[in-house]
Amino acid sequence: MTAPLLQIEDLTVSFGNRSGAAFQAVSGVDLTVRAGEVQGIVGESGSGKSVTMLAVMQLLSPSAAIAGSIKLDGQELTGLSDRQMRKIRGARIGYIFQDPMTALNPLLTVGQQISEAVRIHKPEASRSEAKQRAVELLRLVAIPMPEKRAEQYPHEFSGGMRQRAVIAMAMANEPDLLIADEPTTALDVTIQAQIMELLDRLRREKGVGIVLVTHDLGVVAGVAKSLSIMYAGRIVERGLVDDVFAAPHHPYTRGLLDSLPQMDQRVERLRAIAGAPPPISARPSGCAFHPRCSYAIERCLVERPPLRPVGPVEAACHRAEHVAAESRARQDA
Amino acid sequence: MSVVVPTQRRWRSVVPAWATLPLVGGGVIILLWVIIGFTIPLWAPYDPVSLAGMRFQPPSAEHWLGTDALGRDVFTRTLYGVRHSFPIAVVVIGCALVIGCTVGAIAGYVGGLLDSVLMRLVDVTLSFPAILLAMAVTASLGPGLGNAAIAMVIVWWPIYARLMRAQVLSVRNREHVEAAVASGATRPRVLIKHILPLCWSPIIVNATMDFGQVVLLAASLSFIGLGAVPPTPEWGQMISDGALQFYRWWIALGPGLAILTVVLASNFLGDGLRDFLDPRAK
Q1: Which residues are in the ABC transmembrane type-1 domain (chain B) (predicted)?
Q2: CATH class of the region B64-281
Q3: What is the torsion angle, in degrees rounded to the nearest 10, for the CA atoms of residue B97, residue B102, residue B103 and residue B104?
Q4: How many other C-beta atoms are found inside a 10 Å radius of the C-beta of residue A26?
Q5: Which ranges of A240-290 would DSSP assign to H, the alpha helix?
Q6: Looking at residue A29, which CATH number applies to its domain?
Q7: Residue A278, in any domain of the structure
Q8: What integer pLDDT is reported at residue B124 of this predicted model?
Q9: What is the pLDDT of residues A241-276, one digit of tens each?
Q10: Would residue A109 count as lying in a domain?
């Protein structure tokens, strides 16, 4: 087994407000990404997925307090100065933003933006070299006629093409790690598939490790190897994608899978998870999921379940065995 | 199948979309004044500062706008006036833009304590009426067009500082800025390459409209004797000459019309530019 490319240990991110109260957006998150591997992170809005990733890049506002350890290839990132972090952003970690419509500067041609990303980390590269590299990168992300496309402005690109351009920018300096923060949320389903295919190809050809943040389980199922499910700032279940999908051990995962439409069954209504995720300022006691959980018992109200190995996966639920058994029974039926 | 094209659309296909009436009208008037300013010595009918005929002549074929108390041709002096008003307006707007935009951009981008300090300075300056502050500063520096220009820069820079800060604040949270930071760009680079280029349009519009206002304020300062010194053919100075000659209306008419056309034209031009630069504002 190779050494992990990105290793997050016990990461806690809290935001203080003026009155001195601190809210934990992310609590005790562990995450490991290996080179050439896609790690999926799934959760509802506000579950702490993006905050975790922004903490890795140190792009959070100064009011955020980060505790724990974030190691990239063995190098500790927490506590690095802004100057040191700049050498890592873009060079060793590429970041793909959610909305390709707004992630590009409307006043620069796509080629100029990509060559700029190149020149930030290779100031010695000449303009023409950087431009050539931009065309190469556009070709890498399968944009047809890259020479012509490089001269165009973002508004001349379609959504899918823009996301390809954004990916090309993230790949400009051959980073070891790509963080894709909901890269397909703003796109059509058919384009989503193409973008996922592209990310998967980059993983195979360039051997980059990819963190795929999404709230779409379908997207994860296709390309990710392992998967972490987040709820209210914590990882509630993680394991290999196949294992988690085969038999979810956490009621939340179960609820997420149940709420997907099934192709082989006729259902009147999709089963949604009742209620809404708790706001950061009012996290429930015990297990944060208990108010919405149909499996909740007395113990869940007072004692927060730790993430523990259950069968092939890890789950943070007092009744994981019970949930898993029921999941399996349903699968067999 | 034949398609009937409405007249207006056919007209649109001949005239480009940006060529709206305010934009073209305002632009033409300003351009005319600029041409006059550059070429007037070549074709001026009289000398602007020496005797051209009898004093207090009403408008006639020789003196289109009559003559003033010293027998100088008002029409010639009016045309020469642009050589004082326009350079002043350009310099004042230019300096105010440079100072104001720099301060505003830094305040908006850096934020925090620096932002508060700079913006309070802006608030204090803006809390005085423009003409009053300009008068006070010019009076303390001594009369003269140069000192009036310095006073007007002091009056004008805070407007651009505020505008620029608001623009930077609205642009700096856009995703492409965050994307630039995520690709490792330094802070100055992010500001200059990814924020500032998106901030200019309201500032250009404002500067165009302010052009007329500066011409007006410069004339006002000269009118009360704080700007141009006689015998400079300056519009405000000329109006103040004419103000005492109530029944010899032609003395103030020329410079008055000149100021009117410049202020109107710059407002039209600014309006047209706004419609052109920001299609949503229509």
Answers
A1: 82-270
A2: mainly alpha
A3: 80
A4: 27
A5: 241-246, 251-258
A6: 3.40.50.300
A7: no
A8: 95
A9: 999 988 899 999 988 888 887 777 676 777 788 888
A10: yes
Q: Would you state the structure tokens that stand for residue A245, as one six-digit string?
A: 């999908």
Place of tokens 């004044």: B33
Question: Buried b / exposed e across B236-254, counting CB within 10 Å, b at 16+?
Answer: bbbbbbbeeeeebebbbbb
The SS3 call for residue A44 is coil
Domain ranges, residue A214: 6-224
Query: Domain count of chain A?
Result: 2
What is the C-alpha to C-alpha distance for residues B148 and A182, in angstroms, rounded to an integer? Answer: 57
DSSP class of residue B192? I
Give the separation between CA A320 and CA A249, rounded to whole angstroms.
5
Q: Nearest CB to A59: which of B181, B186, B198?
A: B181
Distance from CA of A50 to the nearest CA of B (A): 13
Nearest to A99 among B175, B185, B197 (CB): B175
Tokens found for residue B37 = 């300013």
**A chain contacts of residue B183, beta-carbon cutoff 8 Å:** 89-90, 94-95, 117, 120, 169-170, 172
For residue B6, pLDDT beyond 60: no
For residue A277, is it within any domain? no
CA distance B36 to chain A (A): 37
pLDDT-based confidence at residue B12 (cuts at 50, 70, 90): low
Same domain for A257 and A289?
yes
Same domain, residue pair A217 and A297:
no
Count of CB atoms situated within 10 Å of the CB of B229: 13
Which DSSP state fits B73?
A: B
Do A89 and B186 make contact, defined as CB atoms within 8 angstroms? no
Chain centroid, CA B59 distance in Å: 30
User: Residue A47 has what pLDDT?
Assistant: 87
Cβ distance A209 to A5 under 8 Å? yes
Q: Quick check: A170 contacting B, CB < 8 Å? A: yes
SS (H, E, C) A112-140: HHHHHHHHHHCCCCCHHHHHHHHHHHHHH
The mean pLDDT of B32-53, rounded to a whole number, is 90
A317, HSE (Cβ side, Cα atoms, 13 Å): 31
pLDDT of residue B232: 86
Has this prediction a pTM greater than 0.90?
Answer: no
Domain ranges of chain B: 64-281
For B189, nearest residue in chain A (alpha carbons): A120
B184: nearest CB among A103, A106, A120: A120
